[in-house]
Write a structure and sequence with these properties.
- The chain is 39% helix and 8% strand.
- It has a 3-stranded parallel beta sheet with strand order 2-1-3, with helices on both faces.
- The longest helix is centred in the middle third of the chain and has 16 residues.
- The N and C termini lie far apart (42 Å).
- The model has no long low-confidence stretch (mean pLDDT 89).
């Protein structure tokens, strides 16, 4: 059985959204790069955007862009890989937990901090009620998501999938990983 990638989308520190091979690469100095984010209003409902964190907006916009380019409204499955999940939302939730001494916490902060938030948001936007899974295995997350998709296709469980990877680096995680010597 042959498996094909019909389209792809990415939001990265290069102008890759809508064109994965940019004509004029952006040069950076230092070890911290910031993503070049698109105008989300062209893909997402402005009422939803207000309540989305940065990683959820980027993951949802990339997914919707890929689905549009593939002329696919509702995939048979949504499979996401993430090493750390929604780090910024997790940090916000943990800070509020400390500040409020573990009392009077809103459930929204917790819900948006979970690893499967991006995949769940994409499913809600697409009204996809089929298979939705998020793999959290550090550096192997995307590869595992891709393998799961390949197995689903080979087993005949699905015909058209949305498979992606999403992660973010926040100042706190950047500082920690920099101390480990992971950035040059």
């Amino acid at each position: 059985m042959k498996i094909f990638i019909r389209t792809s989308a990415a939001i990265s520190p290069q102008p890759t959204f809508g064109n994965l091979t940019p004509n004029a690469p952006v040069e950076y100095v230092g070890d911290k790069l910031s993503c070049i984010e698109p105008n989300y209003n062209t893909l997402l409902d402005p009422k939803l955007i207000r309540r989305m964190s940065r990683i959820i907006k980027m993951g949802s916009a990339s997914a919707l862009n890929a689905l549009q380019e593939a002329n696919l409204e509702n995939p048979d499955a949504i499979i996401v890989g993430t090493a750390y999940g929604c780090m910024e939302d997790t940090e916000i939730f943990l800070r509020k937990m400390i500040q409020n001494q573990e009392e009077l916490l809103t459930p929204t902060a917790f819900i948006q901090s979970t690893h499967n938030t991006v995949g769940a948001q994409i499913a809600l936007i697409c009204k996809c009620h089929q298979y939705n899974n998020t793999f959290v295995q550090n550096g192997f997350s995307f590869e595992t998501a891709l393998l799961d998709g390949i197995l689903m296709l080979r087993d005949g469980e699905a015909k058209q999938l949305l498979v992606g990877g999403v992660d973010e680096i926040i100042p706190a995680s950047h500082a920690i990983l920099h101390r480990f010597g992971l950035y040059k």
